[in-house]
Specification:
By secondary structure, the protein is an alpha/beta fold. Helix content is 35%, strand content 22%. The chain has helices at residues 16-27, 64-74, 81-101, 145-159, 224-231, 259-262, 276-279, 289-301, 319-325, 336-342, 344-354, 416-438, 450-461, 468-482, 489-506, 520-544, 562-565, and strands spanning 3-12, 32-36, 52-53, 115-124, 132-139, 163-166, 168-176, 179-187, 193-203, 236-237, 242-249, 266-268, 313-316, 363-372, 376-377, 383-385, 392-398, 403-404, 486-487, 553-554, 567-574, 577-584. The structure holds flavin-adenine dinucleotide.
Length: 597
């Protein structure tokens, strides 16, 4: 028998999005529980290095309007501009709130929050009318910004006595009469099933980079609730847009934050050429990520790659190189000491994973699967939307990387995700607090946990021979090779066929551990099921969009096609397949233009 709980609100996920939502709920006096499959401070938000964007203008002139424009242009005009305006405007109060909570931001000698440059964040070039150059907009705490955000928000929740259920993995949503009324979870330690009844459920479960092999994402980023929402008939928006970050550790995918280039790092090809000068003359290494990842691939294809298989390029953060190519504000020189203070973890990663000294040598980098622009569609209050007419699913919210609001459109700018998760996590929490006051509890079926229990029992009693690790490896390689930085119809059709075969094989998957306590074997098998669904929706959505835009680059359709494709994709589950519908992009101030840097 499942153990029953009743909370006004349940937040699933304890990263930045979930913790700000629960903080708002707790402050509003709402009886709220946070469920997290990880211990909260192990959430992926804690690995974010580079910073959080806000046009504070502490280092040089800056405005929320400029930030908004960059976000829209960076997203290749697929951004909903009303949402981007909120993102850029509320950035300032969000960062100041964090400061007041005690987050130890880096500071200027005058005591203001210090900021650094980041890809795609610009200001007008005073010497070159019509052109734009990098601006210092990223607020940071060395290269541990996400860690500081997560710790700060966790402390605030402890202070406000939020109830945490740690290492509770959600297995299903309770959807009745088209409304969300709670969720079904397993207590990982005991294997007991718990049912949480709630007036509002906020999904804040992060990304699903584990559909790829070479990825910066943590093992836990398996898109559980994104897949569950899809299985319950909620469409997924813009799933074809997955971001490849240009600078992952060679062959391992571990992230070398854009902060390395924000501090002046330079990319070189095999001929010692700073190739970004050729591709993006104004922004160079600080062009948006989608572009740099493509240019790296183009360099490799042109025979300009380096490394054992000539499939990488160099990243150079040696102070001498940086000083040769950049003139720092006030004519100051970059020093080894200064870089160690600005990028302590990143330099340590290079020493650890590449086995070399980054102050003396260049190191190899390669694009790595990084961020899901697509996800569960929501409005600007975090309310989940069920169709192309923006009908709201009562009782269900989503915020953070699992959601698509859509502020990132076809390509996210660095430092805009930490911002997105906090701005829209807060908004979801505030709106849920409002909803809870207006509604009463609805009944939950006593059979709410049937599907979840059947899945677990099915895995334990399976007589099949298929292994989770094998299927996962094949899926990840397929996605890397056929739905990567560059895509074409032929490859993607093969990928969809292969993923379908793997979904079939998954029916025969077996687990070794038949016990109840800490059965990670079963949980990993369930997670593989979510990943297979999301790989399938990603590949199918990518084949469907016959244009190139932002992070979606088609060799067979190399141009952006605003006439036919200036619209959001909604991928619905239909008999195990996908049915596509569309909705328009919200445009307020900025008409689509050619995107050059
Ligand atoms: C290495 C790295 C560096 C990054 N650097 C930056 C940066 O500098 N700036 C920036 O803006 N962005 C950065 N990003 C992106 C950004 O960090 C993430 O997009 C963001 O932190 C996601 O936050 P979130 O709250 O949505 O989810 P997460 O922080 O990923 O948290 C997800 C939560 O969901 C829970 N969960 C998941 N599934 C279940 C389930 N089934 N049941 C219960 N709980 C569940 C987990 O336990 C976890 O608590 C980086 C990302 C990576 C991977």
């Amino acid at each position: 028998m499942a153990i029953l709980h009743k909370y006004d609100a349940v937040v699933v996920g304890a990263g930045g999005a979930g913790l700000w939502a629960s903080y708002e709920l707790a402050r509003a006096g709402v009886n709220c529980a946070v469920l997290s499959k990880l211990y909260p401070t192990r959430s992926h938000t804690g690995t974010a290095q580079g910073g959080i964007a806000a046009a504070l203008g502490n280092m040089e002139e800056d405005h929320p309007d400029w930030h908004c424009y960059d976000t829209i242009k960076g997203g290749d005009y697929l951004v909903d501009q009303d949402a981007a305006e909120i993102l850029a405007d509320e950035a300032i109060v969000t960062v100041l709130d964090l400061e007041h909570m005690g987050l130890p931001f880096d500071r200027t000698p005058e005591g203001k929050i210090e900021q650094r440059r980041f890809g795609g964040h610009t200001k007008p070039d005073p010497n070159n009318p019509g052109k734009r150059i990098p601006v210092m907009r990223a607020c940071k705490s060395a290269d541990r910004t996400g860690h500081m955000i997560l710790q700060t928000l966790y402390q605030q929740n402890v202070k406000h006595e939020t109830k945490f259920f740690n290492e509770f993995q959600v297995l299903d949503l309770i959807m009745e009469r088209g409304e969300c009324r709670g969720c079904v979870t397993i207590d990982i330690a005991s294997g007991e099933i718990h049912i949480f009844q709630a007036k509002a459920v906020i999904l804040a479960t992060g990304g699903f980079g584990k559909i790829f092999k070479v990825t910066s994402n943590a093992h836990s980023l398996t898109g559980d609730l994104v897949a569950m929402a899809w299985r319950h008939g909620i469409p997924l928006e813009d799933m074809e847009f997955f971001q490849f970050h240009p600078t992952g550790v060679y062959e391992k995918g571990i992230l070398i934050s854009e902060a390395a280039r924000g501090e002046g790092g330079i990319l070189f090809n095999a001929h010692g050429e700073r190739f970004m000068e050729r591709h993006a003359p104004s922004m160079k290494e600080l062009a948006p990520r989608d572009m740099i990842s493509r240019y790296i691939f183009e360099e490799v294809r042109a025979g300009n790659g380096v490394g054992p298989h000539k499939d990488a390029v160099w990243l150079d953060v040696r102070p001498d190189t940086i000083n040769k190519y950049h003139s720092a504000p006030g004519g100051k020189k970059v020093t080894a000491h200064g870089l160690e203070a600005a990028l302590p973890d990143i330099l340590e990663f290079v020493r650890l994973y590449e086995g070399l000294e980054p102050m003396k040598e260049m190191f190899l980098i390669q694009p790595t699967a990084h961020y899901a622009m697509g996800g569960i569609p929501t409005d600007v209050h975090g309310r989940v939307l069920r169709d192309e007419n923006n009908s709201v699913v009562k009782g269900l919210y989503a915020a953070g990387e699992c959601a698509c609001v859509s502020v990132h459109g076809a390509n996210r700018l660095g430092t805009n995700s930490l911002l997105d998760i906090l701005v829209f996590g807060r908004r979801a929490g505030l709106d849920a607090a409002r909803l809870i006051k207006e509604t009463t509890f609805e009944d939950v079926s006593p059979k709410a946990d049937e599907v979840a229990i059947a899945q677990i029992e099915g895995l334990k009693s399976s007589k099949g021979k298929e292994s989770v690790a094998d299927i996962r490896k094949k899926m990840q390689l397929t996605m890397d090779q056929q739905v990567g930085v560059f895509r074409n119809a032929e490859d993607m059709k093969m990928a969809i066929g292969a993923i379908n075969d793997l979904r079939e094989a998954y029916q025969g998957v077996t687990v070794m551990d038949k016990g109840a306590r800490f059965n990670t074997d079963v949980l990993e098998a369930l997670e593989l099921g979510y990943l297979l669904d999301l790989a399938y929706v990603t590949a199918t959505s990518a084949l469907n969009r016959t244009e190139s835009r932002g992070g979606h680059a088609r060799e067979d359709y190399p141009n952006r096609d605003d006439v036919n494709w200036l619209k959001h994709t909604l991928a619905f589950k239909n008999n195990g397949g996908v049915e596509f519908k569309y909705k328009p992009v919200t445009i307020t101030k900025y008409q689509p233009q050619e995107r050059n840097y």
